[in-house]
Known about the structure:
The protein has helices spanning about 95-115, 140-150, and strands at about 10-15, 20, 30-35, 40-45, 50-55, 75-80, 80-90, 120-130, 150-155, 160. It is built from 2 helices and 10 strands.
Amino acid sequence: MSLDFFQSSCQESTNETLFGLCDDQDGLRAYTNTDDPDKWVATVKNDRNLWLIFTAIDNCIMKSDEYPNTHRCDGMLASDEHLFFVELKDKRDGWIEEAVAQLESTIRLFVETHGLPPQRHRKAFACNKAHPHFFVFDNERNRKFFSTYGFRLDVQAEIIVF
């Protein structure tokens, strides 16, 4: 399976200091938004006004009919220094394990296709509009995720680009 995670047709760029990542759960791709915080599943704080590229993975890079039974996260947020994979949820129960599995699968596919990325700051975010605040994972799980994938795992709906 050869994927191009950098298809320009699936990308949006912004240097806004505050914006949201949205997924309307309508079978279309995730997107950025600056004017309707009620739609935001994740809030991105970009105080340095870095140019960021948001790439829609689910329903754009990977269309469901092309890759059946392959888990994928909603998107990827990147700069020269940062690479963040993001899964967007809006549900009450059982979402964390599902989101982490989608992030793991997508990161594996990315690394198989492109190798370990050069960005210094690599994170995987599981975000949930219904549970926006930070969820504490045990240190062992975080350590294992980082040692396996080279990405830190955060379960929260606030993405700070530092």
